C-alpha cells in the first residue's frame, strides 16, 4: 500500500449553478451548522482591533503549536492511519498543490478521505455529502483530523496555524476572475484553520467563496496573537461538534 498520492492535475469548472438560501448569522461567537449557508452580517466581524502580532511572535507560536499538535495527537494519527488503510484501497497520506503566500504554489499534506479514483475528469470541489468520501473519510473530515498532517507544512514555513485556507490553483484561477480582490488572501501565509472556517458553513460555489473572503479579509486586517488563540479554541469546538467550514 502506497503512502503518498498526488492528485490529478487536470480540471473542469468546480462551480455549478444555483444560489444558496441564506439565513441570519448566529450570535457573535457562535458557529454555523454544517448545512446552514449564511451570508455575513454587516456587524458580524465584531471586536476592537487588537495590536497586530509581531511576525516573529506569530512564527514562534506556529512552531510551538505545530510541535505540540503532533506530539499530543500521535495516538490519533496512528489510529487514523490504520483505519484509512483498512477502510479503502489507496495511500494513507497525500500531497495536493495549493496556492500560498504571494501566490506561490506548494504541496499541502493531508490524510486521504476520498476514494483513490475520486477525480477521473479533473479537480472538483467537494460537496458536504460527497459520494466520493469514504466512511473513515467522513469522520476525519468532520472532526478535522485529516488536516493535522499540515503541521508539517507549518514547520516547513509554508503555512501558519491560523490564516486563510489555501485553495487549489485550478479553483484560484476561477475565483480570481469572479471575485474582486480575491488575490489579497495571498498576502499572508495560509492557515490550517481560519476565521472563515469557524464563522461560516461549508460551501462549494463562487458566492460562498465571496462570503468567506469577507472573513478572511477581516482576519488579515486585524490579526493578532489574541485573535489567533481565539480561532484555535473555536476550532477545537468545531472539531468536537462537527460544524463550520473547511
Question: Any key phrases for this structure?
Answer:
mainly alpha, two-stranded parallel sheet, globular, 246 residues, two-stranded antiparallel sheet, disordered N terminus, 8 helices, 38% helix
Indicate the percent of residues in helices: 25-40%
How many structural domains are formed by the residues?
A: 1
**Helix/strand/pairing category:** mainly alpha
Q: Give, in order, the helices and strands.
A: HHEEHHEHEHHH
How many helices does DSSP assign? 8
| Span of the ends, CA to CA | 28 Å
Roughly what is the average pLDDT, rounded to an integer?
A: 80
Principal-axis shape:
globular
Q: In order across it, which strands form the biggest sheet? A: 1-2
Low-confidence sequence ranges: 1-48
What percentage of the residues does DSSP assign to strands (E)? 5-15%
What is the radius of gyration? 17 Å
- Summarize the main sheet: 2 strands, antiparallel
Care to describe what's here?
This protein is mainly α and 246 residues long. The chain has one domain. It is built from 8 helices and 4 strands; from the N terminus they run ααββααβαβααα. The strands form 2 sheets. The chain has a two-stranded antiparallel ribbon with strand order 1-2. A two-stranded parallel ribbon has the order 3-4.
